[in-house]
Each structure stands twice: as C-alpha cells, then as structure tokens.
C-alpha cells in the first residue's frame, strides 16, 4: 500500500457550485458541479493467485486437465469448455509472441494523464497448446517512445518485472526480444533495472537540412511578432530542444513566449527530438503538425515530456498564419 | 412467434450537449414524437423497454425509474436493457420479443443518453471524462489499469484485421472518400448533429491522428445527447394503426444477435478471435436466416459505424462485400451515392445505401438509443424510396464483442 498516494489525485476535483450556461437555443439555464465517485477495496478473489505469483516473479496460468486449454491470466480456474472442471496451475515461460499489431494510444482517458503515448497488446504465451488465451500487456521499447513498426504481429517479446511489485498488472511489461542483451534473455525474472531505458539511442539520420532550417527560422521570426504564437509558446515555459534532422542539427530555445532557432547544436538542451525525413519539420513550419508524425512514427521523441509540448508547438504556425491573415503581426524590429 | 410491426418512430435533435434538457426531457421528447408518428396516445401502450447504456452518464442509478411517470407509463411494466454500444439494438430485441411472444400487444422502446455532462478538471474539457467512463467497460484487474480505451479496442480489432487481410482498410483515401459520402448523407438528416458541416476527403486526410494508421479525428463517431423511441405492435394492432395513419406497415422480418467472449485468445468459442468481428457476422446471418433473405436482397443499411475502418470490416462481416476486399465499397461503387439518388431514388442493382442518416459519425450517437435512431432512418428511407428491405445493425462492448442485426420489411398498404 502506498503511504502518500491516493486513488483519486488531489488535483482531480471541481469547485462546488451552480453556474449559468447557455446552449444552442440561447435560453439561459443552470448547471451543477457534482460527482458520482465510488471508492473500492476491489476483491481479487480467485484472481489473487496470479498476482501473488507476479509478486514472486513468476507467470502462471490455468490449464484444463481435459481439453488442455491454458488461460493466462487465469480469469477463471474452472474450464468453460469442459463443464467447469477444476483447472490446474501451470508455470509459463517469460517470453511470448505478439498476437496482433498493437494500437498506440495518444489521447488517454482521465486517469492516464502524462502516460501517453503507450502501447497495449495481447501476448500469446502458451504457444505450444492449441487452445489458449492471450495476456493483455503493456508494451515498452528501450529505443524511446512506442511508435508504429515495433509492436507488430508475431514479434517475440520478453517479460520484464518491475523491481518493486505490489500485485498489479502494471508490475510487468513486455519488451521486444531483439532489444534484450543476449546475456539477459534467459534470466527469469528479468528486472526492469537490468535494462537500459534512459538515454535511448536515436536512429541514424542521413539527409540534408538547409531548407528545413530556413523554414523553421522564418517561422520563429514571425512567431515573435504574433500575439497568438507568443501565448502558445508561453504555455511551454522555458525549454531548449535539440533537433536533429537531415544531416544537421539546430536548437529551438523557448523562453517568455519567444522562439529562437540557433544553427549550432547546444550541449545543454533539455532533450533531443529527431526525424530522418526533413519534411517533418518543413510541413510543421508551413502550418502542419508535429503530433501527427510522432503518432505515425516518423518523428522520434525521447520521452513523454517531449510529447507533452507538441500540442503547443503544433499551434504556433497556425497562430502565425491567423495573426498574419488578420494583420495582427507586430512590426518587424 | 407472432408477426411484429413497428408502427411509430421518433427522435430528438442530436446535439453534442443539451444544456436545455435533462435526459428526462429528452426521453419524453422522443416518446412524444413516436406517439405523434403513430397517431396514438400513451394510454394504448402496454409496456416499455428502456435502453440506457450506463448510470454514470445519466448520473443516477436506476435512471429509468425517474422516467416512468414523465413518459406517461405509470403503473405499467417496464424493463431496462444495458448492453454497451449495442444497448439500443438489444432493447429493440427485448421489445420485439415481448410482442412476438404475445405477452403484450403494443410495446414502447425508448433509448437515449446524456453523455457529455461529465467533466475532466485536469484538461478542463468533458472528453477525457467521457472516454474515461467508457473505459470503465474494461475489467479492473487486467485491461483498465493498462489504459485501455474504446477507440484503441476497436483499433486493435482493425489492426488485427489488417494483419490478416493486408491492403484493404489501410488506404486512407478510401476511408476519406467514405467520410465525404457519409457527410453528404448527414447533411440531409434534419435531426443530424453535424448536418451543417461539410467535410471533404482532403480535410479527413489532413486531420490529426487519434490512432495511426486507421483512425484520424474526422473518421470517428461522435458523442451525442439525444433520445429515440420506437413502437412495436402485433399484427392486428399494426394493421389498425397503419389504416389510421394511411402508411405502409413496417414488419420485423428477422432478428439476430451474438456476443463474443471477453478474453482474447485462440481455439475456443469461449475466447475472442481478434481478426474478425464474428459477432456482427453471426448476428446478421441469424437474422438473414430468420427472414429468409440474402445480403444481396437488401439495399438500405444503417450500420453502427464507430469508426470508418470498423464500418468497412462490418460491411464485410455482414456479407455485402468480401472480407479482405471491403474497399470495393468505393473501388467498385458498392456504396450508393446520395447525390445521384436524391431524396427518393432507389439504389442501382448491386448498390447499397449505407447510413443515409449520416450514421454515428455525422448523424448522432446517443449510445442507449443510437440503434433506434438508425431504425428511424431505415424506416424513413424505405418509405420514401419504396425499397422493400433494410438492415439495422448494432455493435458494442469492448473489442466490438456484442453484435445485433434486425431486418425490416416494407409491407403492402392497408385498405379499409
């Protein structure tokens, strides 16, 4: 049990009261701030054994002695195919195959704020039997954020246990087998601390970037003059972001709503983002988005913090265009 | 089983939020519209079936209890149905069964939702809270803690389908063209939520990703507040009422349903098979068998389209196009173009009018009553186009586990 975390985060609340509201009909109405919250001590019951095994660093399933079906997790211990006959505990290997290409969630529900993007899929663990359920799984890569092309059908995965476990499905996650150093592949349980998740190695890039640099610099020059863009950038706070693209590097410095683009690479950046295809930044500077290439996998990001500032950066070129269209850009200095 | 007709249908306007009305008022509006459609009074109704998807959206446990009196059904039997996204269909199935069995002569079936009062204080918007409530459809042990959502579960199905049948739903242009056509249809629905909106294929392709590579923002269904009501009657009452209204009767010719299991796996009927939406297939073919018809006999469908990629797969599962070749909907012109048909034209042989209401993407998606909304549209289109058969489809629950289909038939005019 956690001593200082609560089930509902402290900031997840509303001020009490009633306020006026007007809809499509233009009729003045009221709305009430209220809630329908239920707290639980949720029974694990027959599911307990599975989670007790996770705490011990083991993966178990239920096997039917008659039809040999293996259920992992053992959502029931009585075979639904054989008249609810008692199933037996079976110890399962710490590797499996991804049963289908996994979706990557970038717009999470309330309660998952700050975790996106994340990949969730189904792992086929009991591959040797004809009838088996698949384990719902969090999928994690050591190469940065999850992106399309990594968690595809049939990819072999290694089960990894968190070092601190308390009996939750999030005590475990799965990593592509090829990313596990050979000397660690047979270790059961393999602990998260035995793998390297910090400072992921970026992919190799190879294209020229002069056109991209000019477009981004032109955007920055206009952004300083655009009141809307300045507001967008203020939301980002103070950040220095390294951008590696098409054989070159530049730095985006954001401070007090001001965007500055420097040709040199800055060793003191907060993080580095990169794209093999320079068009990613060219499109952004011309009114596109950085969130889309991140979702598609063509923009590489090191962490969720980098992902979190993309919505604000997405708005900048649109804001510049709107202010320019409305003649609201301040004079060039 | 006794023959059953649908004698009245009414829906509210679909809105993203009704600050002017609670769900009490929305349900009452729909019931009133259905009764006016059938030229009858609530006194003639024997019983009611309510479709309400969940208690959290309505902010009341036993939400139907508050409706009994306000929809003029005091002291009569009533039952609530809740079956995820397929709630509406299953409520219709329950109402159908009550009449078909002979237990009641005339049964009201009303469903709706007040979905967007939910509010997420962290983002300052309703959407993550709405998504969060729907995410509670997952179990608390395994799936919910992993951050499973409704859209990623349907996308998971689409991705598995794409693994099994590559080169079909992955063409964004085909999906975008379908959106453009659905939008034009939604523009003709006087109750549709996005009836004033114009969305082009180009705009679809430029909209942001929700889940790459099968779901952009403009490919997703809406959250809607609204309600829809249908009135089911036995053969004698159907003929009486149609004589009164002077309209051709609508007969329920086939009903089919199937629910896939929760846990995903292989080799057992008690485990869900990922690449298929088997529930859709089984439901539809059970309905075809009962009705004695083939998909090729049906030229109007109202399909539960949560997302366009899922709509394509469902059209394959229902047998209108081949699995793995559902892009024939656009490539071979299977999807009829409303621009050519106008308000009264019949689809050409080999063509199907798909979601003339605009579907759940443009028309509306008030979960507990979305399939009543679809039925209202199917009836309207059969009558104005004189098309003899239509199919209404519903799907729901995580991983599209629940499926239902109803075949409607346009009957002969009743003479006094």
TrEMBL record, chain A:
<protein>
    <submittedName>
        <fullName>Uncharacterized protein</fullName>
    </submittedName>
</protein>
<dbReference type="InterPro" id="IPR052513">
    <property type="entry name" value="Thioester_dehydratase-like"/>
</dbReference>
<dbReference type="InterPro" id="IPR012340">
    <property type="entry name" value="NA-bd_OB-fold"/>
</dbReference>
UniProtKB/TrEMBL annotation, chain B:
<dbReference type="Pfam" id="PF00108">
    <property type="entry name" value="Thiolase_N"/>
</dbReference>
<feature type="domain" description="Thiolase C-terminal">
    <location>
        <begin position="282"/>
        <end position="399"/>
    </location>
</feature>
<dbReference type="Pfam" id="PF22691">
    <property type="entry name" value="Thiolase_C_1"/>
</dbReference>
<dbReference type="InterPro" id="IPR002155">
    <property type="entry name" value="Thiolase"/>
</dbReference>
<dbReference type="GO" id="GO:0016747">
    <property type="term" value="F:acyltransferase activity, transferring groups other than amino-acyl groups"/>
</dbReference>
<dbReference type="InterPro" id="IPR016039">
    <property type="entry name" value="Thiolase-like"/>
</dbReference>
<feature type="domain" description="Thiolase N-terminal">
    <location>
        <begin position="5"/>
        <end position="118"/>
    </location>
</feature>
<protein>
    <recommendedName>
        <fullName>Thiolase family protein</fullName>
    </recommendedName>
</protein>
<dbReference type="InterPro" id="IPR020616">
    <property type="entry name" value="Thiolase_N"/>
</dbReference>
<dbReference type="InterPro" id="IPR055140">
    <property type="entry name" value="Thiolase_C_2"/>
</dbReference>
């Amino acid at each position: 049990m956690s001593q200082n975390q609560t089930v509902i985060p402290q900031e997840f609340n509303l001020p009490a009261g009633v306020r006026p509201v007007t809809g499509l009909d233009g009729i003045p109405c009221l709305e009430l701030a209220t809630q329908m919250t239920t707290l639980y001590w949720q029974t694990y019951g027959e599911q307990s054994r599975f989670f007790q095994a996770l705490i011990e660093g083991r993966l178990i399933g239920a096997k039917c002695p008659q039809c040999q079906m293996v259920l992992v997790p053992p959502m029931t211990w009585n075979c639904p195919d054989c008249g609810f006959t008692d199933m037996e505990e079976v110890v399962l290997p710490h590797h499996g195959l991804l049963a289908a290409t996994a979706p990557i969630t970038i717009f999470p529900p309330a309660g998952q704020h700050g975790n996106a993007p994340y990949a969730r899929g189904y792992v086929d663990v009991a591959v040797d039997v004809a009838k088996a359920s698949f384990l719902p799984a969090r999928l994690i890569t050591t190469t940065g954020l999850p992106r399309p092309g990594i968690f595809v059908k049939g990819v072999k995965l290694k089960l990894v246990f968190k070092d601190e476990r308390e009996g939750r499905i999030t005590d475990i996650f799965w990593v592509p087998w090829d990313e596990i150093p050979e000397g660690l592949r047979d270790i059961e349980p393999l602990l998260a601390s035995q793998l390297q998740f910090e400072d992921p190695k970026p992919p190799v890039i190879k294209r020229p970037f002069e056109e991209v640099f000019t477009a981004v610099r032109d955007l920055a020059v206009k952004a300083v003059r655009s009141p809307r863009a300045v507001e967008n950038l203020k939301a980002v706070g103070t950040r220095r972001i390294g951008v590696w693209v098409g054989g070159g590097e530049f730095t985006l410095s954001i401070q007090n709503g001001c965007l500055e683009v420097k040709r040199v690479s800055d060793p003191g950046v907060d993080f580095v983002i990169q794209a093999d295809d320079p068009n990613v930044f060219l499109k952004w500077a011309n009114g596109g988005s950085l969130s889309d290439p991140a979702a598609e996998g063509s923009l590489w990001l090191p962490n969720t913090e980098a992902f979190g500032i993309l919505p604000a950066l997405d708005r900048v070129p649109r804001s510049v265009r709107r202010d320019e269209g409305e003649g609201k850009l301040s004079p060039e200095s | 089983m006794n023959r059953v007709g649908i004698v009245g249908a009414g829906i509210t306007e679909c809105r993203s939020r009704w600050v002017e009305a609670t769900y009490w008022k929305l349900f009452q509006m729909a019931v009133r519209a259905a009764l006016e459609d059938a030229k009858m009074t609530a006194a003639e109704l024997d019983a009611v079936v309510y479709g309400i998807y969940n208690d959290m959206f309505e902010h009341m446990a036993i939400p139907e209890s508050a409706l009994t009196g306000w929809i003029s059904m005091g002291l009569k039997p009533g039952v609530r149905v809740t079956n995820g996204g397929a709630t509406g269909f299953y409520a219709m199935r329950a109402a159908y069964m009550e009449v078909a069995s002979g237990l009641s002569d005339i049964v009201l079936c009303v469903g709706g939702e007040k979905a967007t009062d939910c509010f997420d204080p962290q983002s300052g918007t309703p959407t993550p809270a709405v998504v969060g409530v729907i995410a509670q459809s997952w179990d608390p042990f395994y799936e919910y803690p992993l951050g499973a959502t409704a859209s990623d579960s349907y996308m998971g199905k689409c991705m598995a389908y794409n693994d099994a049948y590559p080169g079909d739903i992955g063409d964004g242009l085909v999906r975008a063209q379908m959106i453009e056509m659905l939008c034009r249809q939604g523009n003709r629905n006087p109750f549709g939520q996005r009836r004033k909106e114009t969305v082009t294929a180009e705009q679809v392709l430029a909209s942001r990703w929700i889940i790459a590579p099968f779901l952009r923002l403009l490919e997703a269904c809406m959250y809607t507040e609204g309600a829809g009501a249908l009135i089911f009657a036995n053969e004698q009452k159907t003929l009486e009422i149609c004589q009164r209204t002077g309209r051709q009767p609508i007969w329920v010719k086939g009903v089919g349903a199937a629910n896939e299991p929760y846990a995903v796996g292989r080799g057992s009927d008690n485990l869900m098979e990922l690449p298929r939406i088997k529930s859709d297939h089984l439901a539809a073919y059970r309905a075809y068998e009962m009705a004695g018809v083939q998909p090729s006999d049906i030229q109007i469908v109202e399909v539960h389209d949560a997302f366009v990629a899922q709509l394509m797969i469902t059209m394959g599962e229902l047998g209108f196009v081949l699995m793995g070749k559902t892009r024939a909907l656009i490539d071979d012109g299977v999807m009829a173009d409303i621009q050519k048909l106008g308000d009264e034209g019949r689809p050409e042989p080999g063509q199907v009018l798909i979601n003339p209401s605009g579907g759940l993407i443009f028309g509306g998606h008030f979960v507990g009553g979305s399939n009543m909304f679809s039925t209202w549209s199917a009836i309207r289109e059969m009558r104005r186009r004189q098309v003899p058969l239509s199919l209404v489809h519903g799907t729901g629950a995580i991983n599209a586990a629940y499926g239902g289909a109803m075949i409607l038939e346009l009957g002969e005019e009743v003479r006094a």
